[in-house]
Amino acid sequence: xxxxxxxxxxxxxxxxxxxxxxxxxxxxxxxxxxxxxxxxxxxxxxxxxxxxxxxxxxxxxxxxxxxxxxxxxxxxxxxxxxxxxxxxxxxxxxxxxxxxxxxxxxxxxxxxxxxxxxxxxxxxxxxxxxxxxxxxxxxxxxxxxxxxxxxxxxxxxxxxxxxxxxxxxxxxxxxxxxxxxxxxxxxxxxxxxxxxxxxxxxxxxxxxxxxxxxxxxxxxxxxxxxxxxxxxxxxxxxxxxxxxxxxxxxxxxxxxxxxxxxxxxxxxxxxxxxxxxxxxxxxxxxxxxxxxxxxxxxxxxxxxxxxxxxxxxxxxxxxxxxxxxxxxxxxxxxxxxxxxxxxxxxxxxxxxxxxxxxxxxxxxxxxxxxxxxxxxxxxxxxxxxxxxxxxxxxxxxxxxxxxxxxxxxxxxxxxxxxxxxxxxxxxxxxxxxxxxxxxxxxxxxxxxxxxxxxxxxxxxxxxxxxxxxxxxxxxxxxxxxxxxxxx
Length: 487
Prior knowledge:
Layout: H1 2-30, H2 34-45, H3 58-79, H4 82-85, H5 89-114, H6 119-128, H7 134-141, H8 148-177, H9 183-214, H10 222-240, H11 245-257, H12 264-289, H13 292-295, H14 298-323, H15 331-339, H16 345-357, H17 362-380, H18 384-390, E1 415-421, E2 442-449, E3 452-454, E4 467-473, H19 474-485
Antiparallel strand pairs: 1-4, 2-3, 2-4
Helix pairs in contact: 1-2, 1-12, 2-12, 3-10, 3-11, 3-12, 3-16, 5-6, 5-8, 5-14, 6-8, 7-8, 8-9, 8-11, 8-16, 9-10, 9-11, 10-11, 10-12, 14-15, 14-17, 16-17
């Protein structure tokens, strides 16, 4: 009996992953965010659907959701370029703090009237839907040619506002449950969580970078696992001291991703694939947790629609316009930032907190939050690219390089291949390879020029725009990089 159950579980897991991967392909053609289809897969296979899986465990869903968010935030931080983000740090942090608070307050007023709950419960609902979602934003913006500054603002905001929403959610639950809460203690807790989370993220990010670059593992496939282990370690250590683990993970990933890293491409590609698995698992599980018979009711639909309209068309725009005063955004950019405030997994995961706390209206909150997320992802998520185009906020089209180089590296070889794009400032331009004084243990393996492979010879001249694949020993790596950076 147990063996057949195990086989059934493994088979179902395989089918869900296959369906999830294929879903990503169809989502772009249908113009619907993949997360919507993942959720629908969960709802379809659940108890109210085809009945393949019966899942009604908010605690397990919360654990899986947080684990997945760690992976997704880590991957998002790795891919984020600090050179782009540093120019939007101030507005992103303003949106992640003041913006979340303003959204919470406005939605709380609406929730008090529409849901007929107490003031504290209204503020709890506002806190749950107050933040944009990193998983949704990263997934929807990936591959889009939206202006770099706007994309960076949205990504930095979504990566850093989850801690604020989680803090507010837990705080309002405590205020509801505790007879005489200490408001001063809550304020102190906020600064502790954000400050210590930031510090631990910076420290462990640097420690992870140092460890990855110094350790000599037997296989290059172990380096991505090693990096991922630091992401989990960062969250757990930060959470143990009751600080913001999600903020720490995102900050650590920013540090790692913007550092000079051994086996950089292997680490990035592994975490990109693992983040997709985490998204598929998380949204499918959250889809399983909701029962369509409870969700698709007149009461939930009406209340969910009203709150969605207020969130998208009132609360978010007010929060954006007030949070970005005198920060260099014009009217069109603010309108776009308002529309691009996607809700996703985080509000649904946060909606499990009141359920585990046993609050009276927790099931109502979960169903309405779920409906709000569906509306946000479906309506906003599927129109972001079109909206940006209509407002004239698209940048140069992002073109993925058609060439690729797959490497199977053994740590014992004590060597690696670097990818370097030649710019006008590089001092090796217009010189033949034979005339360039490369350090010892350096070999130009391949040159990509105008998307064509060129086999390098001594007489081959280096041109601006060439992409060089350079085999270099660990000992000569720093010397080579210094030489290439010289003017």
